[in-house]
Design goal:
Layout (H helix, E strand, L loop, with lengths): L2 H21 L4 H14 L7 H26 L5 H24 L2 H21 L12 H18 L4 H10 L4 H26 L10 E2 L2 E2 H21 L5 H24 L1
Antiparallel strand pairs: 1-2
Helix pairs in contact: 1-2, 1-9, 2-3, 2-10, 3-8, 3-9, 4-6, 4-8, 5-10, 7-8
Protein name: Probable membrane transporter protein
Pfam families: TauE (PF01925)
Keywords: Cell membrane, Membrane, Transmembrane, Transmembrane helix
Amino acid sequence: MDIYFIISLLALGAFTGFFAGLFGIGGGGIMVPMLTLLFAQQQFPVEHVVHMALATSMAAIVPTAIASLRAHHKHKAVLWAVVIKITPGILLGTFAGTFLASYLSATPLAIFFSCFMALVALQMVFNRKPPATGTLPGTIALSATGSGIGAISALVAIGGGTLTVPFLVWCNVALPVAIGTSAAVGLPIALSGAVGYAINGLHVANLPAHSLGYIFWPAVLAMAAVSFLTAPLGAKLAHRLPVALLKKLFALLLVGLSLQMLVSVLG
């Protein structure tokens, strides 16, 4: 690994942590396209760079998810009954999603990621919230919903907040509690996704050294270490900066990064 690569990973971790603290996001929307670009520049196998980016992002989200869960739990903003009921489906759906992702080639994965992030960006720009017209379903329905959230989260390496929060708000859960509960759900998503990608990549040939399956551990450690320092800074500045404007600019950044990912894969 050259020094440029290491510095780039540290910078990516700092950048991701800051915006995770500022907007309450998991960071997959930034990490996946940037890791795809960096891995391609390091001449990692081109057919696996997207899989490795997804896997590495999932593993890097784990410590962030733990910190976020603890913070929201301290504020009594987690519906643990919902977390317990939805987690079996989350674990199953996320784990299964890693097998689907591993089966797909890099191109359809990159296209799906880019389209999904475009939808996320539009939601951030227009700030549309679902009407609170539903109620929390029973255990089976919650688990089934969790399976869908987990599967999509595995394909785009997110903690599930962009899907879980709107679902809970639609079920008449107050927004702060929906965010806190989503943060708690993000941990099983990240854990199951990381384990699934590690297992699926165990027998893949030509992966770089220091990889566990599709997870490239030097990147995980570098990004996680720095993001822990910058996430509190972003959270602190969330009340001082024009967040509404920054969200719109961040949405444009997500679209630009997704397009760059497509260029890296298709080019």
